[in-house]
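Components:
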Amino acid sequence: AQSVSQHNHHVILSEAASLELGCNYSYGGTVNLFWYVQYPGQHLQLLLKYFSGDPLVKGIKGFEAEFIKSKFSFNLRKPSVQWSDTAEYFCAVNGNTGKLIFGQGTTLQVKP
Amino acid sequence: EAQVTQNPRYLITVTGKKLTVTCSQNMNHEYMSWYRQDPGLGLRQIYYSMNVEVTDKGDVPEGYKVSRKEKRNFPLILESPSPNQTSLYFCASRGQGYGYTFGSGTRLTVV
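Structure:
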């Protein structure tokens, strides 16, 4: 069965620190990979997605992620976080069924 | 504007009182899905629908029903809500290229 695991449940950073959130998935076939962000009290918004091609994908708000097929990973990065990046981040995967499976989420708190 | 609309945004109800959360999309998407979000568990799929009159169980379907009588609407029905169904619910639709659009969420409290 497909599953998604996010390494960190709660991350606290100071502004300007670099961010990396880990995401690993288990699925043997071709996958589509996503990172979503949920700001407090809001719905999910797509940060970035990977379908094929260049494994380094750039998303909105300065976020990027790297797909490493051999490691089944899709880690999210940002060189310098801002207070406004405080939110919950979800990694998600879907395979050929189209079903979107989410990780448990990582709460990011950025201190001003 | 392309969107998924859920109603209500907030709902407090009592155990056993039937309720329906509506979901409507204006993008002509065939695929629609319901998720519940709980702390530490992420989002889990309740039901999904590949097209009109085609629905199937997700990972946590117990206590829920859905219907898909027309393409744009995909209501979630709780026939007899219980406190363990207190959660944040999201409806989503998917278009070509696996692009998902999520509704704004419904925060349900069952007392």
